[in-house]
Every structure is written in structure tokens, then in C-alpha cells.
Amino acid sequence: MMLLLLSSFQLVDHSFMPERALITQIKAAIAGAISGAFHVRTLAEQYGIPVILHTDHCSKKLLPWVDGLVSASERYFKTHGEPLFSSHMLDLSEEPIHENIEICKEYLQRMSKIGVLLEMELGITGGEEDGVNNEDAAQEDLYSKPEEIYEVYKALTPISNMFTVAAAFGNVHGVYSPGNVKLEPKILDKAQKFITEKIGESAPADKKPVLFVFHGGSGSDLQDIREAIDYGVIKMNIDTDTQWSYWNGIREYEKKFHDYLQGQIGNPEGATKPNKKYYDPREPLRSAEKMTVQRLEQCFSDLKCQNICGLGEVKAASNVAGPRRGGLPV
Ligand SMILES: [Zn+2]
Fold first, then answer.
1. 330 alpha carbon – ligand 1 mean position (Å)
2. Distant-in-sequence contacts of 294-297, Cβ < 8 A, 24+ apart
3. CA 121 – CA 91 distance, rounded (Å)
4. 188: burial class by Cβ within 10 Å (0-12, 13-18, 19+)?
5. Measured between alpha carbons, how far is 326 from 330 in angstroms, rounded to an integer?
């Protein structure tokens, strides 16, 4: 299973932005995400790869962006019986918890009708990502309490069980030198036990009522990752490590062919030799992709998700000759 994350978009500084400019940017971001979704759907079928299309952190002021994507999924659902996007994350962790939960309830009501999963954030992820800076967050805010997770569970479960919780257990976006990040996956275990006790009979057989998401997976110890999975984590985000692998591919390429990349003509093989095939941007980008594939393979192994999706023989794609899923926009 391949999981693709579409980041929300970065605005330079919202506070100084005239409202119309913000609306224009949101419209463009909606169009960009929808365009990406159709592209991925079209190609995924060609490769026979099951894909989950998820969007990451969306703060309160960017909710109109998710509104546009949910509307697109509603339109798509009418024709295809499935949503365009699989899942959206709302990051309302900057708001008071009751408001965070109330807004999530509204969205879950709308999204669960068309089979879209909601990921909500509780507590905060430290570090910096997509222009959201929590580098100076108070230590206690980096760890969610079982009572808070239970509040979310109680509020959302009656609507639908199609939600996940990005609870804070010391997670940090970014990679830092050892000793600076203190992950406490046991917080998730405590919460599962607390909620299992509260809900008694209605607890699931595995006693893990909550589906958790692990933010800031980059640079994490394998032991912490495996422990988090045992406590009910079903999804882990890595961004920083894939940013590095992508960049590292470009860096290695430039190092290897440095003397062929200094002008259009002239390299160590001769002053009149053309360099076109070296500076073609597709070459360093391919190198970046290869490095990223390696990093993702490691990630799939860390998360114990290799060869478990039951993919059989790849069937001939049916969207070649005409519109089916993702063939043409609706
Ligand atoms: Zn995150």
C-alpha cells in the first residue's frame, strides 16, 4: 500500500495578507490538490498500486482548503461510489480542546458519509514543518493525556469510527541530534488501557479502541517505532528523512558529475564536448527519486508493511481506453 501525503500549502504570512489574496491562494491550492489526486489515480491504476490519498496538517484558517477537497470528493462519489481523497488531517491543536473536538465532529459527519477518514491532532508536534513552528513549545504540551484522548473518542465514535488520532507522545518534526527528542510511546498504551476500562464491554477484542498516528517519524529509533505500532499506531509520517534522501540524490549526482555541469559545452573529455545529457534536470531528479525509493523501502520494513497488501498479478489497467476511476475529471 502506498500512502501519499499532500502537504497543505505554505502562505508567507497570513496576518498581512489581504483577504482576497488568501482566497485566491486557497482556490489555487484546491485546484492543485485535485489535479494531483487525478494524476495519482490515473497512474496508480497503470502500475496496479493501491494508493491512499491523504492531506496533512490543516490549521483552522486553512479549513476552506479542506472544504474544497471534501466538495470534490462528494462530487466524485456521486459518479464513482468512492471519494476522490481517502483521508484529511485537521490540525486544530492550537485551538482550545473543546473547539478542536466540535469542529472535528462536524467534519467527521460530512466526511464519513462518503467514506473519507478524518485524522485529528491532539497536543502538539514539536519542531517545525510547513511553516508551523513549535520549536519553543512547552514540554508538557508535547505529551497528550489519556483523559483528553478519551474525550475525543467519546465525541467522535458515535458519529463514525473512521477517525484516527495524532496524539502527542513527544513527537517532533525534523531530525535532531540524539538526546534532544524524548519519545514516550507508553503514553499511547496508557490511553488505550484507560479507554478500554471506561468503555468496558464495548471495547474491541484487541483492547486498542483508538487508531493512532505517529507524526515526526523521521530519525526515530526502530524500537520506538515498533513499540508505537504495538500500542495501536496504524500510520507514521516521515517527511524530513525523505526530504534528505531526495536532496542527497541531487547532491550525489552533482558531486559525481561536477566537472560536466559547469557549462553547456566543455568537460574533462574535451573543450568542445557538449554536456546536455548531464545537465538535463531529469537526471539529478531521477537520482533523487532512486535515493527516496531506498529510504521508503527501509520505512516499509520498519513499519512491517512489506508484502502484506495481497497484491497479486497486476491486471491490465482499464483507464487506458477511457474514463473509469480517475480517467477524466468529473
Ligand atoms: Zn505532522
1. 31
2. 294/245, 295/238, 295/241, 295/242, 295/244, 295/245, 296/242
3. 5
4. buried
5. 9
CA of 184 to the centre of ligand 1 (A): 17
* Mean pLDDT for all residues in the chain: 88
Please give the Cα distance from 166 to 213 (Å, whole number). 5
Annotation says 56 is catalytic? yes
Residue 144 Cα, ligand 1 centroid: separation in angstroms? 15
**Residues around the ion ligand 1 (C-beta < 5 A):** 215
Q: Which candidate in 56, 91, 224, 302 is catalytic?
A: 56
Q: What are phi and psi of 108, to 5 degrees?
A: -65, -35
- Measured N-to-C along each axis, helices 146-156 and 186-199 cross at an angle, to the nearest 10 degrees, of 50
Q: What's the pLDDT tens digit per position in 19-71? A: 777 778 999 999 999 999 999 988 888 877 788 999 999 999 999 999 999 99
Q: What is the CATH number of domain 6-239?
A: 3.20.20.70
State in Å: Cα 297 to ligand 1 middle: 20
Residue 213, judged by CB atoms within 10 A of its CB (0-12, 13-18, 19+), counts as: buried
Kindly report, residue by residue over 99-121, the tens digit of the pLDDT.
Answer: 999 999 999 999 999 999 999 99
Domain residue spans in the chain? 6-239
- CA–centroid distance, residue 322 to ligand 1 (Å): 37
> Is the Cβ–Cβ distance between 165 and 211 less than 8 Å?
yes
- In order, the DSSP letters of 64-100 are HHHHHHHHHHHHHHHHHSS-SSSEEEE--TTS-HHHH
Name which of 108, 19, 35 is nearest 69 in CA terms.
35
pLDDT tens figures, 213-269: 999 999 999 999 999 999 999 999 999 999 999 999 999 999 999 999 999 999 999
Q: Record the pTM.
A: 0.86
